[in-house]
């Protein structure tokens, strides 16, 4: 009798599940993990929309060049399909962007209509500010769905132009979680973290795949590196006293970069050392903020003096007014023939973990 009672809940659950509709059973089933790397997305739009001015504006936004790489790479890798080709497998993509002209009757507008409902359709015709909806984890875990729509093509173009910044920000937030997961899947290198804290007085979350290569006690500099058969990913850290404003200038950060690079980074070639390529428009500067501290950022391309090597770099000069200290961080990669966008995103994530 006790064994019969034990299986009653299972039997009831089975009966309830079989009595559900297919949609209800799908909601009750465990969701798969979303498909796709950071920077990848699926755009669902009918051909008439995709090849219109609205589609052109969207492509320009999504596929603009990622900042300062030796070879051009887009901000996002975009794959376009029409609504009729949205299969069950494709519904599991990590980022899906639906773009619809609601004056059309299509598979894409049907998808959008199911999300916003009849009231939403009527509202979209009258209230042009109602044009974008975000959904998460609908068909897969870790998924972001974005719906942008308008009552006609002209308004769709205007909506894309108005909302592109907020859409890009939402996608980048989703990418951040994916990049962080990939970067720290091996955990933390606590030995390196403690060494940085003890020797330089700052904290960084160094992934377990990075190893301490060099510590220069005289100049208070540390070099960390991650090596595989195809890529070399590196981080330079230097701590110093704040002595003058020029340390936080465009010339100051590049002078520091060349100084540290000359001392720390060499190759097998005789008399080789790392330098910054100072060609016109090859360096981008920006004033930013990292964890509440004023920061000067520089992005550009490095090369090896007396050798044929090079790649992208990202440098930070971070000022801490509490103790009048400056921390210099530099991330650079050498990955011939490989895409470098994701490598630089990982380095940025690591360096932005800095705390005093």
Number of helices: 9
Q: Roughly how many Å apart are the termini?
A: 65 Å
Low-confidence stretches: none
The helix fraction, in percent, is 25-40%
Q: Report the principal-axis shape.
A: elongated
Topology:
Blueprint: H1 2-19, H2 22-28, E1 40-44, H3 47-50, H4 53-62, E2 77-81, E3 95-101, H5 107-126, E4 132-136, E5 144-150, H6 153-183, H7 190-200, E6 211-216, E7 221-227, E8 232-241, H8 250-264, E9 273-276, E10 284-290, E11 293-305, E12 310-320, E13 325-334, H9 341-351
Parallel strand pairs: 1-2, 1-3, 3-5
Antiparallel strand pairs: 4-5, 6-7, 7-8, 8-13, 9-11, 10-11, 11-12, 12-13
Describe what this molecule looks like in 3D:
The protein has 356 residues and is α+β, with helices and mostly antiparallel strands. It starts with a helix and ends in a 5-residue tail after the last helix. The chain folds into two domains: 23-183, Chitobiase, domain 2, CATH 3.30.379; 190-351, Protein Transport Mog1p, Chain A (3-Layer(aba) Sandwich), CATH 3.40.1000.10. The chain is elongated. Helix 4 runs parallel beside helix 6 and helix 6 (153-183) packs across helix 9. The chain has nine helices and 13 strands. The strands form two sheets. Strands 6, 7, 8, 9, 10, 11, 12 and 13 form an eight-stranded antiparallel β-sheet that branches. It has helices spanning 2-19, 22-28, 47-50, 53-62, 107-126, 153-183, 190-200, 250-264, 341-351, and strands spanning 40-44, 77-81, 95-101, 132-136, 144-150, 211-216, 221-227, 232-241, 273-276, 284-290, 293-305, 310-320, 325-334.
